[in-house]
Structures are given as structure tokens and as C-alpha cells.
Amino acid sequence: MEMALQQDLREDEKHLLEEIQRDIPLVTHPFEYIGNRCGISEEGVIKKLECFTEQGIIRELSVIFNAVGLGYKSTLVAVKTAEHAIDTLSERINRHPGVSHNYLRENQYNIWFTLTLKQDCDFSGELKKLFDGIHPVEYLVLPSLKTFKIGVHLPFTDKKHVQSDHAMFQPKKEVKLSELDKRLVLCLQHGLPIVAMPWEKIAGELKIDEQTLFYRIHRLKEAGAIKRISAVLRHRRVGFRANGMACFQVPQHRIDTAGRCLARYPEVSHCYQRQTCPEWRYSLYAMVHKKQKEDCVSIIDEMARKISCNDFLVLFSVKEFKKARVKYFLEQLEE
């Protein structure tokens, strides 16, 4: 069904899906600007985006934040549990407001999720509470040490410009945020409305003018609190059914060279160096997206040869338990 859907897309629709994954511009009529790049009218872009959202092709048009820049911290957690406990545990994990991604993967560590907390929160204590009463369970905490690439950009045409403009984004330290900035984050994390002048609508909700809104967003992007503003697509719905997390065991002195090499592959959306531990010595991770599993394996084999790594494995996602944006500064709503 997914493959048929992609094959049914017209060339201008494919071009639109590529463009909308880029950073949505800070102009009064962003969809007119995007439409001019695709040969589609502003009204046509809006109708197509609405249709793609209804069809489940577009998950959302969202502002993608950097947790560190907002005063939060994030880590990948790998869990080993028995098959009979998977559903119970995954449901409990999903209920945690700090969990954005949660997948069942092909490995003895079968549940993999991302947990985001405020900087002063204790990961260890939070995980103990999360796993309390669930048996058997073992888990690994695998925080990111360095980012080489971040930003999914799925290709639909043969053009060579499909890689994200923000592929080499490097997270920065916590940004000093004003009360207006926090209100802006609260507003933006609900997604970008699909209307002719979405920024004017958001500015009105904040009771500021559009130019002030543009300045504040630009400042947050420059400081590293905002990564980009773009469409998030459902991979499987548009034919990219093979999503493999490649884990490479790379020695410390070769991490930077290998990470930069993997980041150049257009099939790679995320590439990180992560902390290792005695039970899990893989240090370099790359998320690879292809239409077929065998294509995914083939490109990862090529990547391993390129970085001279013989010790690696690929964890394919078997089931998506949760994929959602973390909600920041919710405590502001309670004050």
C-alpha cells in the first residue's frame, strides 16, 4: 500500500514533499514561497498539505527543538525484557511525558526509547520508578556524546539536493530564555497551522507582531534552541519501510573521521557517538532509511567497509510504540 501511494504521486507532489522537509521560511507567506520552488500555487500547496496530513503521509508540521538548548537533557535507553512483559512495559514507558520515541527492535535488548528530562532531574531515579515491579528487566543508558548529523530528509526524486540543510547541526549549551521565549516554545510545540499566513496566526496568539516573532525564532535558532521547522513524514506510509539503526564499534581515536564519513550518506538521518558500557561497546550509531530491508543492509555493509569496521550490527524496528514530540515548559501552564 505504501509503495503504491508513492508511485501515485505526481512530480510536483514529490518535489513538495522534499521541500516541506526543509526549514520552513520565516516569511509572511511561507507556503507561497515553497510553492514557487515546486511550481504550485499557494492555495495548491495548502490543499496538498492538508490532503497529505489526512492521508497520514505528513505526521505534522513542527518546530524541532534542541532539548539541551531549552534546559533539558535526553538519552537513549535500551531495555532487555521477556516477551510476556513487552506490552506492559511499553505501555508504561509510553505514558511517561518525557518519552518521545519508543520502538521494539530485533535484539536481546528489545525495547529502545528516548527519555528527555529537565537538567536537574535524575535519570537513574526516574528509570527505577519506570521499571518498578516489572520483571525481568535489564537496561542500558546510552547518552549522546557527539552529534555528527541530525535531520530526516526522505528523497522522492532523483535530484541531489535531498539532504537536510541542517544535517550537521551541533547542539549547544542551554540558552537563557525570557518569559516570552518560553511562551513561544509552548505555542510552537503544537505545530504549524496549515493556513496562508501561519506566522501571523501564531503572533496573534502571543499578542506580538509578526516581525517580533521572526526575530525571536531567529534568535532561538542561532542560539541552538531550535533545530529547524519542517514537516515530519511517516516513513512507512511513503514507502520507506526499512529503518535500521546501525551500531558500530569504533575506537575513540577514529570516531570523528568515521562519524563525518557516515554523515555524508543521504540515507543516514541521524549519526551520533554514544557512551559505551561493558555490556554494550558500540560507540557510533547511524539511522538508515531505505525502501527495502536488503537495501538497508547493503548500504550499511558499504558504510562499515568505508570506516574499516568489522564489528557492527543492525537493529531494525519491528514495531513503533510511540513517536511524539516532547512537550517543554508544561509547568508554565500550571502557574
Fold blueprint:
Blueprint: H1 2-7, H2 11-19, H3 30-38, H4 42-55, E1 58-65, E2 72-81, H5 86-95, E3 99-105, E4 111-118, H6 123-131, E5 137-142, E6 144-150, H7 179-188, H8 198-206, H9 210-223, E7 226-233, E8 242-248, H10 255-263, E9 268-274, E10 284-290, H11 293-306, E11 312-323, H12 331-334
Antiparallel strand pairs: 1-7, 2-4, 2-5, 3-4, 3-11, 6-9, 8-10, 8-11, 9-10
Task: Name its key features.
single chain, 335 residues, alpha+beta, nine-stranded antiparallel sheet, two-stranded antiparallel sheet, 12 helices, 35% helix
Describe the protein in words.
The protein has 335 residues and is of the alpha+beta class. Helices cover 35% and strands 26% of the residues. It is built from 12 helices and 11 strands. It has helices at 2-7, 11-19, 30-38, 42-55, 86-95, 123-131, 179-188, 198-206, 210-223, 255-263, 293-306, 331-334; strands spanning 58-65, 72-81, 99-105, 111-118, 137-142, 144-150, 226-233, 242-248, 268-274, 284-290, 312-323. A 9-stranded antiparallel sheet has the order 5-2-4-3-11-8-10-9-6. The protein has a two-stranded antiparallel sheet with strand order 1-7. The longest helix is centred in the N-terminal third of the chain and has 14 residues, at 42-55. It is globular. It starts with a helix and ends with a helix.
